[in-house]
């Protein structure tokens, strides 16, 4: 919630589009839109220089598939335009110094606050994940390894943990691709169970921006693409009066 309201604060007043008129996704030029480097793009979600721990880095709990695919995408950040997004323990660490919109206020700056996907501190027990974003293609890849604290059926991840991971990846993607704000809807079709401790790959694409909403889709599958775990579509609010959007 804090993440999305921070996004709302940053985005109000931009991208004004007449209701009913489609907004064609532009080809994103990182130099003109975000600055002269990939660091300036990432800085929209985090501090450019920080000593805070990045939880989206390999640790001893990562399975071989996750480690190998992580290294593959890390190489792609050098040659194919992908950007690895850092992940800190709280959205207070990602975006600071902004006022919350709609009369909302944070009572205090709690040092123990944690984003839900980083609420389990023990390595490998909860959400192990890393998100890579491609600015010009408006897409993301999330490598997700559910730990035993996310168990639903014995030995398999709870469906809600995957829904949470989809929502988190949608949020980051929507914000970087088109100033996405609040999640309006998630429509998920679960197809197979994810074994605890194994890798699930979330392939997220921005489909279109229309009527001040950003439409996103996701296919979650095994690394070899032989098993589809779930398919999902969602909508994110863009920058205009959220009350009029939420009422539609």
From TrEMBL:
Task: Please name the Pfam families in this protein's record.
Answer: 4HBT
Residues in Thioesterase domain copies? 155-218
**Gene Ontology process terms (BP):** cardiolipin acyl-chain remodeling; long-chain fatty-acyl-CoA metabolic process
Q: Which GO terms describe its molecular function?
A: long-chain fatty acyl-CoA hydrolase activity
For this record, the Gene Ontology CC terms, alphabetical, are: mitochondrial matrix
Q: What is this protein called?
A: RORG protein
Source species of the chain: Crocuta crocuta
Q: Which Gene3D superfamilies match?
A: Hotdog Thioesterase (3.10.129.10)
């Amino acid at each position: 919630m804090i993440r999305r309201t921070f996004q709302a604060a940053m985005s109000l007043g931009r991208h004004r589009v007449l209701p009913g008129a489609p907004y064609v996704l532009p080809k994103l030029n990182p130099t003109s839109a975000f600055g002269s480097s990939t660091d300036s793009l990432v800085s929209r979600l985090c501090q450019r220089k920080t000593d805070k721990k990045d939880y989206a880095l390999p640790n001893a709990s990562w399975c071989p598939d996750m480690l190998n695919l992580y290294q593959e995408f890390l190489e792609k950040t050098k040659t194919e335009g992908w950007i690895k997004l850092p992940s800190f323990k709280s959205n207070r660490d990602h975006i600071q110094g902004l006022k919350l919109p709609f009369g909302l206020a944070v009572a205090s700056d709690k040092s123990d606050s944690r984003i839900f996907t980083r609420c389990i501190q023990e390595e490998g027990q909860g959400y192990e994940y890393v998100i890579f974003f491609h600015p010009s293609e408006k897409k993301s890849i999330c490598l997700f390894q559910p730990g035993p604290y996310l168990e639903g059926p014995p030995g398999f991840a709870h469906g809600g943990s995957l829904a949470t991971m989809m929502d988190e990846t949608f949020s980051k993607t929507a914000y970087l691709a088109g100033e996405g704000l609040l999640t309006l809807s998630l429509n998920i079709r679960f197809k197979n169970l994810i074994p605890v401790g194994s890798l699930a790959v979330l392939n997220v694409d921005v489909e279109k921006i229309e009527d001040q909403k950003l439409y996103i889709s996701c296919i979650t599958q095994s690394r070899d693409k032989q098993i589809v775990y779930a398919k999902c579509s969602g909508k994110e609010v863009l920058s205009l009066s959220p009350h009029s959007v939420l009422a539609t």
